[in-house]
Amino acid sequence: MVLDRPRHEALIQRIRRTGARIHLIPDGDVAAAIATAIDSTGVDVLLGIGGAPEGVLAAAALRCLGGAIQGKLLFRSDEERARAKKMGIDDDARVYTEKDLARGERIVFATTGVTDGDLLPGVRFHADGADTHSMVMRVQTGTIRTIRTQHRFDHEPAYRR
After folding, report:
1. Which of helix, strand or coil describes residue 131?
2. How crowded is residue 119: how many other Cβ atoms within 10 Å of its Cβ?
3. Mind listing the pLDDT tens digit for each residue in 75-91?
4. Which of 7, 82, 131, 145 counts the most CB atoms within 10 A of its CB?
5. Which residues contact 123 (CB under 8 A, 6 or more apart)?
6. How many helices (H) and strands (E) in the chain?
7. C-alpha to C-alpha distance for 33 and 3, rounded to whole angstroms
8. Distance between CA atoms of residues 2 and 102, nearest Å
């Protein structure tokens, strides 16, 4: 799986030359990373350049699922490099793993589908409310919970009465 971006054109061509199947996605790199750790998705690997915050989120989810991530920082400017140096990052060649990006054993990852995706359906609006689908995972227990919530817009909560 690869984000369909101009920056990935050469990578996409290299993958295609190997004969491997490739699924191009318009967005959703965190969900795509999660899909690599769920057998039923058929996704083996996510490749490409993404954002550092998304990498941290993906690492937290993958820790919960027993998956793995490897990433390097790619700076787009000297300003970004200087900012990283201020934060104590001075090894441009370092490969970060899921345990580097999401440390500890008390990690909880929660996500709710906003738009339809491979991982979760998006919000479904109906006449008197909406339905949402969420997933909550924990490293400590290895639990994965999927939650379907029905939101009623016509219901006045007791605290407002």
Report:
1. strand
2. 19
3. 989 999 999 899 989 89
4. 131
5. 113, 114, 115, 130, 131, 132
6. 5, 8
7. 11
8. 22
Backbone phi, then psi, for 66, in 5-degree steps? 80, 20
By three-state DSSP, how is residue 44 classified?
Answer: coil
Considering the entire predicted model, what is its pTM? 0.87
Give the pLDDT score at 161.
63
Complete DSSP assignment for 61-88: HHHHHT---EE----SSHHHHHHHHHTT
Bridging pattern class, strands 2-3 and 24-25: parallel
Distance from C-alpha of 81 to C-alpha of 52, rounded to nearest angstrom: 13
Task: For residue 58, count CB atoms less than 10 angstroms from its CB and return exposed for 0-12, middle for 13-18, buried for 19 or more.
Answer: buried
What's the farthest any 2 CA atoms get from each other in the chain? 65
Mean pLDDT by 10 residues, the chain (161 residues): 96 97 92 94 93 95 97 92 90 94 96 91 95 97 96 80 63
Rounded-to-integer distance, Cα 87 and Cα 70, Å: 20
